[in-house]
Amino acid sequence: MNMGDMLSRNRDRMIREWIRKLRTEASPRYSARPIGEYHRTIPAAFDAYFAALVHNDYSRIDEVVEEIGDLRFRTGFTLSEVQKAFEIFGSLFMPVIVRELKGSVPEVIAALNRLDLCLNYTIHRFSDYFQALSEKQIRDYSQMLEIKVEDRTRELAESETKYRTLVEEIRDGYFVNRGGRIVFANKAFGEMHGYALKEVIGRPFTDFVAPQSMDEVTRLYERRVQEKESREHYVYNRLHRNGSSLLTENNVVLTVYEGEKAAIGICRDITERMEIEKRVREAENLAHIGQITTSLAHEVRNPLSSARMSIQMLLKNKAFTGNERRRLEILAQEVERLNRIVTEMLDFAKPVRYDFQPASVEDLLNSCLDVIETKIMEKDIVIRKSFSNKLPHVMMDPEKMEQAVINLLLNAVEAVGRQGLIRITVSRGKGKKQMVRVEITDNGPGIGPEDMPYIFDPFFSKKSKGTGLGLANAKKIIEAHGGTIRVVSALPRGMRVSFSIPAG
Asked: Among candidates 432, 382, 380, 371, which has minimal Cα distance to 407?
């Protein structure tokens, strides 16, 4: 009987039965595999056995081992499960051999020996392949561990570098106080106290505490090292090398440093923060004053309007002459001054909406000079203008900017004496951003250096009849236009106000 004919006649039936047994009898892992996988792998395995049993060609078995072996190894199959799968083939083929060879014992034995040889070859090849894959997996895992160790070592080194950089480069002072002495600190800690870093290490921590805070800071430290309840966050006065006392914020915790208990902390200069908080409180007070001012201004403006109308009507009466008429004119001027003060107070207190549009600064200044021309002529003031050619337009609210510029010009007019001099210069500002710069310089008495820091503060005024809101309002308007304003003393005498606003 020809082995090839025997396998060919039974091929389809044996493949179907082999698949059925694998899915029902082999193992739960085989049962879980998709049916399409079996229709691909089982015919290939059968044909490989055909080549080995009929043509003594085992190369096809090698190919099947590599294909199926890799698939089974990746999906967690054991060698014994794979062995059982191929033993099923043997259990299916043995009855076929006995039946087809019709009791010819020598032929049956010879066929069974060839089958057994193929099965043994298959199992050995799977065993070698699984072992090779396991060894590769172990090598890959070992290499992965080595890479991880290298990565972790590098990360640790980087972390240490970052930590050192953080400690060394932060602006806050970092220190370790062990046994009452500074045993570690960063550069910022030394700079905060006016010392080089090498001068800090080893010194008693009390060398860096101002006398007024010494008792409290010492008490907190002693309670901390005794592991009693102690505040971690507190504010104290640090002592600078030059003897000055500066407000400082400390965050301190107890730790172990080189085997001993120590206080480790970060100290931060809060002088600027306290100043900001002071300004915030002042701003809140100003806001409250603004609310009161708004209410008061409205209450005052109504009777002022009535008084102004009444005075205007009286002035139209030709019966009032001489001193009586002069008194009415003075009264009208004072009512007008009060009305202007009320307007300034309202402008300062209320939020302002702006209507920006491109406009000429040169036209704006000429218009403002026209408005106050009478006051200029009354004192015979000389106005000298110097405007650069081809000045760009700027985006502004002409009405609001006119209010600001008139305030600045009136300050200059009021500052100079009779036949005083006011210079007005308009030019392009220097810098990357295109700006238009305006300077208004007078030759009046100027402002003392002690008053200069408060010049823009609301209600600050050296004038007997001033509200101190003119410059404050001007600054508010100019800054709303994205500009800046400053006041400096002019030489040899007088004051110079300069402001810049972005070109359109």
From this structure: 371
124 shares its domain with 240: no
Tell me the whole-structure pTM to 2 decimals: 0.39
What's residue 177's pLDDT?
92
Which runs of E-coded beta strand occur in 393-450? 394-396, 421-428, 435-442
Same domain, yes or no: 336 and 370: no
For CA atoms 134, 138, 143, 149, the dihedral sign is: positive
Indicate if 362 and 497 belong to the same structural domain. Answer: yes
Cβ proximity of 209 and 236 under 8 Å: yes
From 221, 239, 269, the end of a domain falls on: 269
User: What is the spatial distance between Cα 501 and Cα 435, in angstroms, rounded to a whole number?
Assistant: 6
* pLDDT digits 0-9 by tens, 165-222: 555 667 788 889 999 999 988 888 888 899 998 899 999 999 999 999 999 999 988 8
CATH of the domain at 476: 3.30.565.10
* Residue 410, amino acid: L
Same domain, 122 and 105: yes
Name the DSSP letter for residue 468.
Answer: S
Listed in sequence order, the residues at least 6 apart from 217 whose beta carbon sits closer than 8 Å to its beta carbon are: 206, 209, 234, 236, 250
The enclosing domain of 260 has a CATH number of 3.30.450.20
Which range is least confidently modeled, 149-153, 222-226, 318-322, 361-365?
318-322
Residues 6+ apart with CB under 8 A from 234: 216, 217, 220, 249, 250
In a domain, 162, yes or no: no
Beta-sheet strands, E only, within 211-279:
233-239, 245-257, 260-269
- Condensed to tens digits (0 to 9), the pLDDT of residues 54-104 reads 899 999 999 988 888 888 888 888 888 888 888 898 898 888 888 888 767
Last residue of a domain, one of 141, 164, 193: 141
Residues 375 and 465 in one domain: yes
Render the burial of 306-329: b for 16+ CB within 10 Å, e for the rest: ebbeebeeeeeeeeeeeeeeeebe
Q: For residue 190, what are the CA distances in angstroms to 101, 236, 272?
A: 102, 17, 19
- Give residue 109's identity as a one-letter amino acid code: I
Residue appearing with tokens 């089982």: 42
Closest CA to 442 of 467, 426, 462, 419: 419
Bridge partners of 267, per DSSP, are 173, 250
Q: Is the model's pLDDT at 50 over the cut of 60? A: yes
Residues 365 and 423 in one domain: yes
**Cβ(410)–Cβ(469) below 8 Å:** no
**Residue 365: exposed, middle, or buried by beta-carbon count in 10 A (0-12, 13-18, 19+)?**
buried
Distance CA 492, CA 424 (A): 17
Terminal CA-CA length for the chain: 105
Structural domain total, the chain: 4
